[in-house]
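the two lines:
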Amino acid sequence: MAEHVSAANDDQPLLVADSLGKTYGRLTACRDVSFALYPGEVLAVVGESGSGKSTLLQLLSAQLAPSAGRVSYRMRDGVLRDLAALGEAERRFLFRTDWGFVHQDPAQGLRMAVSAGANVGERLMAVGWNHYGRIRDTASSWLERVEIDTDRIDDAPRTYSGGMRQRLQIARNLVTEPRLVFMDEPTGGLDVSVQARLLDLMRNLVSELGLAAIVVTHDLAVARLLSHRVMVMKGGRVIETGLTDQVLDDPREPYTQLLVSSILPA
Amino acid sequence: MNAPAYNFAYLDEQTKRMIRRAILKAIAIPGYQVPFASREMPMPYGWGTGGVQVTAAILGPQDVLKVIDQGSDDTTNAISIRKFFGKTAGVATTTATNDATVIQTRHRIPEAPLHGGQILVYQVPIPEPLRFLEPRETETRRMHALGEYGLMHVKLYEDIARFGHIATSYAYPVKVNARYVMDPSPTPKFDNPKMDNCPALQLFGAGREKRIYAIPPHTSVVSLDFEDHPFTRYRFDAPCALCGAGDSYLDEIVTDDKGGRMFVCSDTDYCEGRQSAGHRGSESAVPHKERAHG
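prediction for all of em together
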């Protein structure tokens, strides 16, 4: 049933940003950002550090109140609603059910002192699951999906390697089958082979589950592998946007050309 | 009054008024932690400064006070608090659960059923049940406000994952009046069911943390659990060595360095009551018998 409804709504945007801006006094972190994200679409936001990427992500995920403009999200009932008009309880509920947020530093997104199973199960318990056996089965099936040995379900993530932590964070976010996932530099700080494996995993999960995702990254390779569309930011503005291949292979703006040409040849 | 230098029950009337207001608010919102301006008391934190302030605020000249510490009427903490109020308020004190109108307790609920008109005052060290899972007080308050209690089950989940059962044996989290999750102070979980629909008023005072909360009479108190791992009480599987009781909460007492031990009721009033009614356990002393030394 749910698939039918979402299929029928595929031509309607999931998330709409409308001339978003954020200023801190005279400092402008982000200005006049507008776009629409459709179900199942992966959007990469690229740019150098300080370009406003992370601020934008926080605005979109309603963790920060915008100074100008607004963000609307299509709820599961099909109604597009302004995030600022949602109550705090609704917003927090959205955040732990219909949304996921993958932090660059897994310690921010995980509870490092409780077991991996409980980390994955927390969202389920938050929406009222009350059967230990079922929570544990679901947690272990998710660990399998993100290629973590299920023997380690009772170990705390602080005993995990960096790559495992990041995969655990993804499992923890996807267990409630969200429709939209925000990712902030998901591969930052990982070595190249681990990055490749993680990217492969994320690409599969995103296409399997039909997730929409907004990925903030400074790594153009990540953008190329994961995303359908790219937005290039500089100085708080979006300077170029388009299909990933088009932007990365045939950049129009001088700054984008600089970014693309700055990639070290492998 | 023996000590006219003090106001009745040590605290000044304005302070009592402030504490009573907090208590009234706590009763109006069962399980909600009400902040109050906790005072310095002539005892160290951790010795019951919160409980003493609550008791001082509700005590009247006609009240009969009982103080227990881990169920016992004759430990240092219980005796000194009882004497404190005997001296500063001149109220009658008792060790009999049935005769008391106010019972201040640390870590136990008496075995004898409480009745309407009684007030049970708990000394609470840490009022916040979510503290060790979420250290930010701003965040835990928000979670209480929005009723987000998934995290509480994370703790129980961890117990089962590690030990195969819910191993939390004291300070076992409860849901009060189907709304607020509350830490019932470090009472053993054996006592949790006694809180549910209790005819007596239950007040909780945390002096260091400056919080008061309450369970009004006849309020539902449900211990959290999982469907497939339901809440169970825990009790040592033995009768009391002094009175033979098979239903009371027991303390384990080590008697020598060879592994010898005995189990006795933690509620001394209950145990003595049973002994004077003629019940005997395996270790009961035979009265007036001198031990021969060789």
